[in-house]
Amino acid sequence: MLYALLSAGCLVVSLHPIYDDGSIAWDEGLVGTWRDAEDKIDVTIERAEWRSYTVRYRHPVDTGTFTAHLTIAGDTHYLDLMPERGQDYGPLLVPVHAIVRVERQAETMTITPLDYDRLHAAFTRRTRRPSEPAMAMDQKQNVFLTGSTAELRQWLRLEGANVLGAPATFTRIK
């Protein structure tokens, strides 16, 4: 899940979460261990504190742990992933949020990240459409969504299906 998101080289992340206290959802069916055989990624999702998940991923060349919150914008479920809660990564590192659509049917879960190419093009066109959140770019060409939580949620309700990249499919193994 996360390796596919992070391995693309350039990222789309948000400075603000896409959830607020009133929009946090819970799906017990996400808890378990999942495998994307094509990309050789295993993901374990565990129940964590206050309606959050701990997400651990393992890929042959990388591992990581994130805190995640599930939220619904319109009819679509999204996971907001950020560095593991409680870790101090130093004074100059800011915890950002990665946003992925999550669809689960029985023993299959599909994760779809935001489309970097589409959002990079939106940023470089220099004119923001009314539905788009504010954006910035760093020296590595990563796209930072800088809009507020409310703006991000509205944007996902309006444009969610139009700003998604390539999906990854996981099958439950535990």
Describe the protein's architecture and organization.
The chain is mainly beta. It has one domain (2-172). The protein contains 3 helices and 12 strands. It has helices at residues 2-6, 116-124, 149-159; strands at residues 12-14, 24-25, 32-36, 41-47, 53-59, 62-73, 76-83, 98-105, 108-113, 135-137, 143-145, 168-172. An 8-stranded antiparallel β-barrel has the order 3-4-5-6-7-8-9-12. The chain starts with a helix and ends with a strand.
Summary keywords:
174 residues; mainly beta; eight-stranded antiparallel barrel; three-stranded mixed beta sheet; 3 helices; globular
Topology overview:
Blueprint: H1 2-6, E1 12-14, E2 24-25, E3 32-36, E4 41-47, E5 53-59, E6 62-73, E7 76-83, E8 98-105, E9 108-113, H2 116-124, E10 135-137, E11 143-145, H3 149-159, E12 168-172
Parallel strand pairs: 1-11
Antiparallel strand pairs: 2-6, 3-4, 3-12, 4-5, 5-6, 6-7, 7-8, 8-9, 9-12, 10-11
